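Worked Example 4.2. Consider the chain below.
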Amino acid sequence: MEFVNKDLQVLPRDFYRRHPALVAPELLNKLLLRGDGRCARIVEVEAYAGSEDPAAHSFRGKTARNASMFGPPGHLYVYFTYGMHWGSNAVCGEVGEGVGVLLRAAEPLQNLQLMYAARSAAKRPIDLASGPGKLSQAFGLNRDFDGADLVLGDRGIVIACDGTSPPDSPLVGPRVGISKAVDTPWRWSVAGNPCVSKAPVSARRQRVP
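Applying the procedure from the previous section yields the following structure tokens:
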């Protein structure tokens, strides 16, 4: 996959080969890119940790639905939820662990017209990808992208860095839309960014060492 901007560095495999709670805050301010020019800055994420995390799809083991989550790090796990939305996750850890980071929200930067075409309900840029279902829809991510390699860009989708660092003090709080491990503070977002889906009431700033 080629990019016009040679300053962009696609995140390497080893970036993802860690616990998702370490990867997640470092994904903030990275760029989600498609080969058609769609680009957005990741501003909200959640970590899910497999067998140690009752809220994870992979908690009870590998199934046909979540098989990609148990694959190599640096791939996408895309799942269908609520009978209408797709959620997109960056697979982390080692093969067989079933851990990953949900991409919850992003700030659109380029080729917004394609995002609007995919998200006809959106009226403002901040509405295009301000939630996991909206983000997947804005980027055209569905079951066809399940297992896509974010490092090699085999299906025209990567995560890259343009030199912007993660925030020193992201907001951290509990995850959303789950019924188990509801107090685990594994949701991170860029403080003050209008594209974040919704700041939890208990969110607090977390200083990154």
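The chain has a mean pLDDT of 90. The first helix runs from residue 13 to 16. Compare this with Example 4.1 before moving on.
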